[in-house]
Amino acid sequence: VFIMKLLVILLFSGLMTGCRGNSSYSLPPKLLLVSFDGFRADYLQNYEFPHLQNFIKEGVLVEHVKNVFITKTFPNHYSIVTGLYEESHGIVANSMYDAVTKKHFSDSNDKDPFWWNEAVPIWVTNQLQENRSSAAAMWPGTDVLIHNTTPSYFMNYSISVSFEERVNNITTWLSNSNPPVTFATLYWEEPDASGHKYGPEDKENMRRVLKEIDDLIGYLVQKLKMLGLWENLNVIITSDHGMTQCSENRWINLDLCIDRSNYSLIDLSPVAAVLPKINITEVYEKLKNCSPHMNVYLKKDIPDRYYYQHNDRIQPIILVADEGWTIVLNKSSSKLGDHGYDNSLPSMHPFLAAHGPAFHKGYKYSTINIVDIYPMMCHILGLKPHPNNGTFSHTKCLLVDQWCINLPEAIGIVIGALLALTTLTCLIIIMQNRLSVPHPFSRLQLQEDDDDPLIDL
Questions:
Q1: How far apart are CA 6 and CA 145, in angstroms?
Q2: 218 is a domain residue
Q3: Same domain membership, residue 152 and residue 39
């Protein structure tokens, strides 16, 4: 029994050592978080990305990241850095209205801390640590004084600033700052802008745009290597949402269903936020049968799986278009691609790739939630996470310092261990039996009643 227990201990300690690998990397750990807006997960399968695939080959890939509803830019970028659903962090759309303060939020009017202060993004947490600082190049919210704090180094948002300039600033800050920059973010508007313009099914144009994205990733990696940052820096490349094909044949015209004087439209397609000017029930009744390709919800009836109900900035009625359908006023939309739809749709999902001393090499994983990225980043940086909706165990398999095993592997190991122990036990029993059985004719054995001498005299 003692031998069997010893073997089990040795077996599992060996497995844990092998799974954890080499976790000794430089302190303090550094992390660069990169987002390419609107990078749909299956672009990786449908187009060539030589630079990105080299990055993945030496790191990890999560093939699908399930983002939060609504699948828009500002809400999902804030979920990545807070680990919270939109109803909890307060950035519930790209366009918002607060009934109490009468304030409006949009992508061109986003600097008021009022909108952002319901959560604490990771760059603030990192910034407040002793002997650490944060840096940012255009990530949504990083140029806002959130909880009276900005990153030590940041760029005021401007679409006209090139990717190369953003990279040059970020890499300079990562290399030459005191206190050192240990967390940095980098944002780029493509392929989102082109996805809206051409639609994801326009293979020719999207191939050109995605080649440009891959070249930018190549530029980033080359810059990190040239500055000696590559080996010790953890880099996460991900996105906020995907993209789906739209068409002028799939429009939902609200003007055919309800007069504009009856309501204000706070946010439009494909999730329209409706603020009634008359009785809420009356507006709801006018809208609920407007189109078979649109779900209409009173706020209290929004499905639980959206986690999109418990915030004052969510309007009394929301309209959710079916995938590929566009909510319009008087038929006015030029978008051939869009996002914002149900977050269970694969077309809305981005991907995640990561490289660096914290991550395994050549490892692929199926799915995580976008809110799981935050606790993983806190772990890498050694930060205490704020309360969040993420689950750290969902990302353990990506990290070299974590014990990770999935159910099929666990069953295989247990069965293998049992077979090995059974075999060993059988061998021990056989050996013991062989030792206890006397060798033939090793000595004469006399019967108790056999007193007669062998030879009569």
A1: 58
A2: yes
A3: yes
